[in-house]
């Protein structure tokens, strides 16, 4: 399924491995076409987990970590949902990862029994962990890895099954709604509490869960809410692949009663509401025992609507411009720029951390900005001639026109500023965020999107004002990238990132997550291979931009403009004299 594994010692020409080149159109491809990214979807199931709850079973969650390339530090990649009351969870939420044949991607799966609403994992019971590599999963038979969970001495912690499936490029989603009639009664008091579970078949004949409906209480004739699912998740773009639908009666203790099942396919479902999409729910055990058994009820498809998901690149092709602004921290805590210990040290032989971060991110974003003119700002410095402190000054010295030409122009202005301003303080982010927000507020039609890169050495002085600025900016076409340089603790930056807990100010929550934070030290390559480590930095800080961009466009109902027709040179008609 994943192509042939490369035999040891026989590198393939071009180094792309045995996988088809399937770089997804919606991705920033950091190293242009030299590394084709294949997307793989990881599904996680566990069997016989430890039971940490006294009166019921554990409520497990799986947390996936990946290992940073430089310092081997584990960083959280994502979490599944919590499943109540079970020791054998089949998690619905998947992990979608880039798979590169030539890279070793170390993974760690941690399991917890969730005891409260807290996102802090230390507040929950640890159930064990499993270490492997992405290549190990993909390379296992049927791309299905089964491994023991370890981590609690003297205890058998159960097993974890991780399955990888290469994702096709299908970009359609479907909106479906189902109802059921005359389902079997399973509850002693009252009727059943039915819900549906959708599973897609795999190439080895097994099934992977891809959607669960909500539970409709106390009825044998439920109507479930319409739900949206990508065609990729439902059948991986294979319209004839079997889709199995199981019907259950929900029980509080997690031992849901099986009512019955039926099978269908995307092609059958796409006929919409018709006599072909009324399914008999069959319970094989009952059918085997009872001669007069007909069915355990019917499930009917009420509606089926196909929506094509638009990608980040559809907007770029339609002419949307990405405007890139840089803001650099000139506070005194960075150290004297003439000293080698300073984060702003101007080394004639190599870039400092600020220069490296600026170049890594800027060189990719500048491809999406047609005029290549970037406003470059500084904050936290005393300016000549009078020594006033500014939290929003133009690096090129021209407040009316802070634009620099290309990333090289920004670098030049940065070095010029270091020679003319005095590093001071405090570290205030709000003024530069509000600066970009003013521009973003003037063009909300989807023709422009703004990205602000803040490079800082850390401890923020105006946290409350910054949070308010971010909450206000979350309604605008903009994203904020923060790169933390130096050895400081960056706890406040993690809070601004909003990946775990959505950021709020004065009781108002951000409309969407617009901040991405990374510590620069995670990307310093001890071997001195700055090219690769900076490509990693750029990839990680830019990874969330397409989704943040799309979330703004979706909420506002902005569709991409059609791509302009390809240029065809005019045909010159030769005039012939008679």
From TrEMBL:
Keyword Metal-binding carried by entry: yes
GO terms for cellular component: plasma membrane
Source organism of the structure: Grallaria varia
One function term, GO molecular function aspect: calcium-dependent phospholipid binding
Domain of life of the source: Eukaryota
CDD domains: C2A_Copine (cd04048), C2B_Copine (cd04047), vWA_copine_like (cd01459)
Residue span, VWFA domain: 323-524
Protein name: Copine-8
């Amino acid at each position: 399924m994943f192509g042939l594994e490369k035999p040891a010692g026989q590198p393939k020409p071009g180094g792309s491995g045995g996988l088809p080149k399937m770089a997804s159109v919606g991705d920033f491809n950091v190293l242009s076409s030299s590394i084709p990214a294949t997307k793989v979807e990881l599904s996680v199931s566990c069997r016989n987990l430890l039971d940490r709850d006294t009166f019921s079973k554990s409520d497990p969650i799986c947390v996936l970590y990946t290992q940073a390339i430089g310092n081997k530090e584990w960083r959280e990649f994502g979490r599944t949902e919590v499943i109540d009351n079970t020791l054998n969870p089949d998690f619905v939420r998947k992990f979608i990862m880039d798979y590169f044949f030539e890279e070793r991607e170390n993974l760690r799966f941690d399991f917890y029994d969730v005891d409260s609403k807290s996102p802090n994992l230390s507040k929950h019971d640890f159930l064990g962990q499993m270490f492997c590599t992405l290549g190990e999963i993909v390379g296992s038979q049927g791309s299905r890895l089964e491994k023991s969970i370890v981590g609690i001495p003297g205890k058998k912690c159960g097993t974890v099954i991780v399955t990888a499936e290469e994702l096709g490029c299908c970009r359609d989603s479907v909106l479906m709604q189902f109802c059921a009639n005359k389902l079997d009664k399973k509850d002693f008091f009252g009727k059943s509490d039915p819900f549906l579970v959708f599973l897609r078949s795999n190439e080895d004949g097994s099934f992977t869960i891809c959607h669960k409906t909500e539970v409709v209480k106390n009825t044998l004739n439920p109507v479930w809410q319409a739900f949206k699912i990508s065609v990729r998740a439902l059948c991986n773009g294979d319209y004839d692949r079997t889709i199995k639908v199981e019907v259950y009666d929900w029980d509080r203790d997690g031992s849901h009663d099986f009512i019955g099942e039926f099978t269908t396919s995307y092609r059958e479902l796409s006929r919409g509401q018709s006599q072909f999409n009324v399914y008999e729910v069959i319970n094989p055990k009952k059918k085997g025992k009872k001669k007069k058994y007909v069915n355990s009820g019917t499930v009917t498809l009420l509606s089926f609507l196909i929506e094509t998901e638009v990608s980040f690149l559809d907007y770029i092709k339609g002419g949307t411009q990405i405007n890139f602004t840089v803001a650099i921290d000139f506070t005194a805590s960075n150290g004297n720029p003439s000293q080698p210990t300073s984060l702003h040290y101007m080394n004639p032989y190599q870039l400092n951390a600020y220069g490296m971060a600026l170049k890594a991110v800027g060189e990719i974003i500048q491809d999406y900005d047609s005029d290549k003119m970037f406003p470059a700002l500084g904050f936290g410095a005393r300016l000549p001639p009078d020594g006033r402190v500014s939290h929003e000054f133009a690096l090129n010295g021209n407040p009316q026109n802070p634009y620099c030409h290309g990333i090289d122009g920004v670098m030049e202005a940065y070095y010029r500023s270091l020679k003319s301003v005095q590093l001071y303080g405090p570290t205030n982010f709000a003024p530069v965020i509000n600066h970009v927000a003013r521009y973003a507020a003037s063009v909300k039609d989807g023709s422009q999107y703004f990205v602000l890169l803040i490079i800082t050495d850390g401890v923020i002085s105006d946290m409350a004002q910054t949070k308010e600025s971010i909450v206000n900016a979350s309604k605008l076409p903009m994203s904020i990238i923060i790169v933390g340089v130096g050895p400081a603790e960056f706890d406040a930056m993690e809070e601004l990132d909003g990946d775990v807990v959505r950021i709020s100010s004065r009781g108002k929550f951000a409309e969407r997550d617009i901040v991405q934070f990374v510590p620069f030290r995670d990307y310093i390559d001890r071997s001195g291979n700055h090219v690769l480590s900076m490509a990693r930095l750029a990839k990680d800080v830019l990874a969330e931009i397409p989704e943040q961009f799309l979330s703004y466009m979706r909420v506002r109902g902005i569709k991409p403009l059609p791509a302009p027709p390809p240029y065809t040179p005019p045909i010159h008609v030769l005039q012939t004299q008679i």
